[in-house]
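User: I've been going back and forth on whether these two constructs are worth ordering. Before I decide, could you fold them both?

Assistant: Sure. I'll take them in the order you sent them. The first construct and its structure tokens:
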Amino acid sequence: MKSILNASFVLLLSLALTACDSNDGPNGSLVVTDLEEGTGVVVEPGMTLITSYVGRFADGSSFDSSEELGEDWIFTLGVGQVLKGWDEGLGGMRVGGTRRLEIPSHLAFGRSGQCFSDGTCAVPPNTDVIYDVTVLDVFDEVIVEDTIEGDGEVAEANDVLFVEYTGQLRNGDVFDSTNLTGTLFQFTLGRGNVIPGWDQGIPGMKVGGTRRLTIPPVLAYGPYGAGSAVPPFAVLIFDIRLVELVKAPD
């Protein structure tokens, strides 16, 4: 599984905006070309994908790329997290493949373009764009990183755990934390008391340790989110410190 970095503000702007404000009507069709056939699973709507990409204008000049930003782009296909041209054009690919999307303006940034408050525009209004997108992997497993190695007992299924934690979205917004209550959070590991990403990602921690879990939507709050704090199909990042545990009786 590829490593995941926090999505930058520029990347969010360049891919998440759609042409929903366009009143000019459709003009041109999406053109899809497979540059390299993948050998992995077939990409379908609802999958969370790890991708790399290059965005170019018709003259070949680049305006955006994952390489320039130093991170892969992660999103769930078909739910409006990316340009309409991406949502409509990537289905049916296989993991490992690269597909060229020639996207007309009304399926890209529309008549608003991708402009900033200072008047500059990364993508001018009513501009067709071209993306070469490589699907690197399907993000459906928890990524585990021990930031501090504990030296106490090891957490196992059915143990009662007492933890401190902070949960954030990939843009850095904190949506939950024990710092807000000043109390430890208690739960039984492996019993479904917490989201599946916790039950899968915490076993093996040691008391005194801190672990970062990067959790795909399918193992978090999925298509529904969690109230106003967690949007649908959100990737979640938790920093968890295991303070104490009570071993399950033999």
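The second construct, handled the same way:
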Amino acid sequence: MNLIEFIEKFRTDEECYEHLAKIKSKVICQKCGTTMYRLSHSRKYQCRKFSCNHQQTLKCGTIFYRSSTPLHKWFLAMYFIANSKKWLSSNQLARQIRVTYKTAWRMMQQIRKLMKEDLPMFKWISEVDETYVGGRVKWWWNNGWQRNKTMVVWILNRDTGKIKATIGKSATEEFLTTFIFANVEKHSRICSDERRWYRNLSLCYQHDTVCHSRWERAVGDVYTNTLEWFWSLLKRGIRWIYHRVSKQWMQAYVDEFVWRYNNRKEDNLFGLLLNKV
């Protein structure tokens, strides 16, 4: 959907609301969990359970709940974020949809919640790597460069081309192996570097390593180059678009980058986001 088609389809709040009603064909009551039906000539829905009789709008339980921002601006923000070639800053979004910076920042944080994916466990061959994201420091001795940075762990499945990622305080064997065991099926094949915290993976997986300290980039099909290329995109995006990201919100930004990579071949990213509301 190009911008002209989007403007013709979603010109008013009423058109946005009716399209949202078509997508959310089944509305669940927030009080008792029963399905609801729409009242005639109204935007409200009423619970089918007689003892509950609760009424709510379609926005309840979504990212639009308790927001005074018009619905067509929410749709426009989702369109710009989904169809931006690289990434979009809050200042740029505020200028495009004519809202304040605080409103644009909150809208982007809410939209990033839709980008969090729940993918099935990976099979076959997966790459595992970790990196540190954050600002530069002047003192380098005693691992001082890690203190102001956030660790990000990645798992890429070569069969599906999908990525899973999470953040952590530091690279410990317990944290990394727990994340890998929860996302990769046992007896699969894992490719990683020679770090010491990956040494116990061979107990449950076919574990192959490449030694970066000996300047090995690839040994046959054993490499982590795909992940290293991906997290270079993350670092460039944070440095040149967002400039600075606190540790509190780092996971949301990582989810955005992962969602963009996993759905890079989709044509209608706006519709993909809207279906998850």
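Notes on the second construct follow. The chain has nine helices and eight strands. The longest helix spans residues 225-242.
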